[in-house]
Design a protein that fits this description.
285 residues, alpha+beta, OB fold (Dihydrolipoamide Acetyltransferase, E2P), 2 domains, three-stranded antiparallel sheet, 7 helices, 10 strands, 52% helix
């Protein structure tokens, strides 16, 4: 039981991106439509080909609606770093309920059925109950696959970093607020990362044995424009990281995390920046 509880609390990516999710959904819908077309289960023997294609189209459009709402309406209110397996299972079940409801509406229209509300809810409840176990197995399997790939990638990058030469002399960096008369001076050796929060950035350096933090009223976009170093790059919507300061890389199913000095927190790498960060880390000498 403890193992199951631990497993469903494992991190899970909130999204793999709109296009990958749409393509994955399209494959499932095409497979389901072909099965319905050739085998015609559930009393569909007399159904026309256009009706069966209509079922597939309705499921696909319903799934697109679910994906769009999740990514563009709900995601700003979600802490994606705390998204986990059990939350993904609940979301998958909710998607299923919406898809079933759309199918019932289409079937009612196509076959002129007269279903009462109680019958509809019974059907949705029974189908959802039967789907809990296979959906949970699928989510856990996907999570294990993602975790395996991320761990492999993180191990490769960590091995690369072992041969990295330490920077002796840093190049000066000057970050200037474009709103108030405030300048923060640092260099490419001391700078560890920059974290953004609303209209401010926190510049984190490591001098001697202690980290130093400086607050500056500046957007993260304007900050990166002022830094002329190819190894200081954006890795997340809220972070710019100095790749020369990275000691090791770890990963989970959500993605990679960059580890700097042990007294500093690890820095997440979001999906949209992962390729650029991985390529840059692999080229570090």
């Amino acid at each position: 039981m403890n193992l199951i509880i631990k497993k469903i609390k494992d991190p899970f990516p909130y999204t793999r991106g709109f296009l990958p999710e749409v393509l994955s959904t399209l494959k499932v819908c095409l497979l389901a439509t072909l099965i319905f077309f050739f085998f015609k289960p559930f009393g569909l023997e007399a159904a026309a080909a256009s009706t069966i294609m209509g079922f597939g189209l309705i499921v696909f459009l319903s799934a697109i609606m679910n994906i769009s709402i999740s990514l563009y309406v709900i995601s700003p209110f979600i802490n994606q770093e705390k998204w986990c397996v059990w939350k993904e299972i609940v979301r998958a079940l909710l998607y299923l309920v919406i898809n079933i409801f759309a199918i019932i509406l289409f079937a009612t229209y196509s076959f002129d059925m007269n279903l009462n509300v109680l019958t509809i809810f019974k059907f949705i409840g029974f189908t959802t109950f039967l789907a809990i176990i296979p959906l949970s197995i699928r989510v856990v399997s996907v999570n294990n696959w993602l975790l395996k790939n991320k761990l492999k990638e993180a191990q490769h990058l960590s091995e690369t970093l072992k041969d990295k030469k330490l920077e002796i002399d840093g190049v000066a960096i000057q970050l200037k607020s474009n709103i108030v008369n405030h300048i923060v001076k640092t260099n490419t050796k001391d700078l560890q990362f920059i974290e953004a929060e609303k209209n401010y950035i926190t510049i984190v350096e490591f001098k001697g044995c202690e980290p130093k933090k400086s607050l500056l009223r500046l957007s993260i976009i304007k900050a990166i424009e002022q830094i002329k170093d190819e190894n200081i790059i954006r890795c997340h919507r809220s972070y710019v990281v100095n790749l020369n300061a990275v000691i090791s890389v770890t990963g989970n199913s959500q993605g990679l995390k960059l580890h700097l000095n042990e007294s500093l927190k690890s820095i997440p790498v979001s999906r949209s920046y992962k390729k650029a960060v991985s390529e840059k880390l692999s080229l570090l000498k």
